[in-house]
Amino acid sequence: PEDAPAPLAARLWDLDAWARQARWLLSTLAETDRLADRFAVAAAILRHLLTDPVLPTPLLPDHWPGDALREAYAAFEEEFRTTVLDRVD
User: Fold this and answer.
1) Residues 84 and 35 sit within 8 Å (Cβ to Cβ)
2) How far apart are CA 57 and CA 53, in angstroms?
3) Helix, strand, or coil here: 41?
4) What is the pTM of this model?
5) Stretch 19-33: mean pLDDT, rounded?
6) 40-89 pLDDT, tens digit each
7) How many CA atoms lie within 13 A of 53 on its CB side?
8) What does the domain layout of the chain look like in residue ranges?
9) Domain 5-88: which topology?
10) DSSP 3-state assignment of 30?
């Protein structure tokens, strides 16, 4: 392509919408206390991560929430694993 890479990426993916949804999921997970509800939010996070274009940093908008979303999911996964193991034992 002859276009600059960052604007081209922004045309190919709705990066602003993806980031908005990611930030909403992050805040929802942080505000949710019940394990079942957190599990549902984590499932939504996982589905959303499957749509992450995984672009190089120079092609992403500032303050891209992809890494934070992956970290939040990983933290929940550990929390869930620990909770389940504690209840089984």
Assistant:
1) no
2) 11
3) helix
4) 0.89
5) 98
6) 999 999 999 999 999 999 999 999 999 999 999 999 999 999 999 998 87
7) 20
8) 5-88
9) Methane Monooxygenase Hydroxylase; Chain G, domain 1 (1.20.58)
10) helix
Of 55, 29, 31, 54, give the one whose Cα is nearest residue 43.
29
| pLDDT over 80 (residue 1) | no
Residue predicted with more confidence, 87 or 17:
17
- State the Cα–Cα distance between residues 66 and 61, nearest whole angstrom: 11
Q: Determine the Cα–Cα distance for residues 72 and 29; give it in Å rounded to an integer.
A: 8
CB 29 within 8 A of CB 38: yes
Angle at 19 between CA 60 and CA 58, to 5 degrees: 5
71: region left, alpha or beta (phi > 0 left; psi from -120 to 50 alpha): alpha
One-letter amino acid of 42: A
